[in-house]
Design brief:
Helix content is 35%, strand content 17%. It is an alpha/beta fold and 443 residues long.
Length: 443
């Protein structure tokens, strides 16, 4: 098919095939896959153990991983000479394995024909093929579950999001001990985590890369256009769309591993919650965004970043309503508003939207870098945790430079984060003084 020079040649070729041949052709991944979705040949003089597929969001990584497992399970040449008897499927959580790797649109159940499709035994956490091949599912949340079982192949999805990445990877290596040449395929959008760097540097790793745009035929055109409009050229775009491994900014205040190592799924009960707002200078659709970040202190003394409600700079009433929504949704104790640009107007706008909402005003007297330094130190000490992922905010943190900008732009989300953490940990408001009766004052 790839050697056909025109649609006419393809039509002529298809017209000469029988129904059975057409069914076989349509199901032959080797014909339809892009080169980056096919594993390199395994040669005796250059065997590989790990096939690392780095790609942007929607680049077709999951389909490539699922088709590789299918070929291994069924013994499809040239990927496998004989079926792999036992296979491991590992994701960030068991729910992710089921939702993406097995039942997803490009998952294992979808890429098999009716006669060859495996049976998903949910209660046992495994797939069973008609030929007897078994694939067991595992979560990176429980590395020790990989103690005991043994496999001839494994598929690891979104490795850069794994919580116990190194431990899970190590346990898998001990379990890959069946067959002549156990192999593992890793599909992930890259992040500069130590495990990914180690895998990349291993001489038995082969790597293929794909950008989101390479899979344009299977994606919404409006999605691609919007992603390009928003993120083209940014660090987040290079990572999430181009599949590029972005290292920490040299000389930057934040390191990604500080954020990743402390990350939690959900914050504990918080004793104080604030909504910090960094208003835009102007009110146009192309102006700076209005940074809105919510954070709170837990009983353990750590600060938890729990939401990013940042909105693009528009009419003041728009971002004021976003602040009010964040305040009520998280039952915050106060709003912290930077008033360098708008002065009393900022408070007036917020009070007009919700007169009962307590607002503490702050004014920047030092540069952004100087204000951010003590906040970055809190991250370095492990005293701040992100409850969930905030990709746009974390991109600004990673790209924040000594010029006070992130990737050439104003770091609006980061500014709001700095105000929130400064209010909670560095310069908290003084507690209200008790009201004394005239008698007590005379004493």
């Amino acid at each position: 098919m790839r050697n056909c020079s025109s649609e006419t040649d393809i039509a002529r070729l298809l017209a000469g095939l029988t129904d059975d041949e057409l069914v076989f052709l349509l199901g032959d991944w080797q014909v339809w896959a892009r080169d980056d979705q096919l594993p390199p040949a395994t040669m005796a003089e250059a065997p590989w153990r790990v096939w690392l597929i780095l790609g942007g969001r929607g680049a077709g990584k999951t389909r490539a991983g699922a088709e590789w497992v299918r070929a291994k399970a069924l013994g499809v040449s040239p990927i496998a000479g004989v079926p792999a008897a036992r296979i491991a499927l590992i994701g960030e959580t068991l729910a992710d394995v089921r939702r993406v790797m097995i039942e997803g649109q490009s998952g294992l159940l979808a890429v098999h024909g009716e006669a060859e499709r495996p049976r998903f035994e949910t209660s046992k956490g495994r797939l069973v093929w008609p030929n007897g091949t078994v694939a067991e599912i595992f979560s990176a949340e429980c590395p020790d579950a990989l103690r005991g079982p043994q496999f001839a192949a494994a598929w690891c999805d979104e490795l850069c999001k794994w919580r116990n990445a190194e431990a899970t990877w190590d346990m898998l290596q001990f379990a890959l001990r069946l067959g002549d040449q156990p192999q593992v395929t890793v599909t992930t959008t890259p992040r500069p985590v130590p495990l990914l760097k180690a895998i990349l540097a291993d001489r038995q790793t082969v790597t293929t890369r794909a950008a989101t745009a390479a899979n344009a035929g299977n994606l919404s055109p409006t999605f691609l256009a919007e992603m390009e409009r928003r993120y083209a050229g940014s660090l987040l775009g290079r990572q999430e769309l181009e599949g590029e491994l972005i290292e920490d900014l040299k000389g930057g205040l934040w390191r990604r591993d500080w954020i990743d190592d402390a990350r939690v799924e959900q914050a504990p009960l918080l004793r104080t919650v604030v909504v910090a707002v960094d208003p835009p200078v102007t009110a146009t659709a192309t102006s700076d965004a209005c940074g809105i970040v919510v954070a709170g202190i837990g009983k353990d003394g750590r600060v938890y970043v729990i939401d990013d409600r940042t909105v693009q700079g528009r009419e003041p009433s728009v971002w004021a309503r976003a602040v009010r929504a964040a305040y009520h949704d998280h039952r915050a104790d106060r709003v912290v508003a930077e008033i360098n640009q708008g002065g009393d107007l900022v408070v007036a706008v917020l009070k007009q939207i919700d007169a009962a909402m307590p607002v503490r005003t702050v004014r920047a007297t030092r540069g952004k870098w100087v204000r951010a330094e003590p906040v970055a130190a809190l991250y370095a000490e492990g005293r701040v945790a992100h409850a969930g992922r905030f990709d746009a905010l974390e991109e600004q943190m990673a790209a924040f430079g000594s010029d006070g900008r992130a990737s050439g732009r104003s770091p609006d989300r980061l500014d709001a984060l700095v105000w929130a953490l400064t209010d909670l940990m560095i310069d908290p408001p003084e507690p209200p003084r008790p009201v004394l009766t005239p008698f007590l004052r005379r004493l």
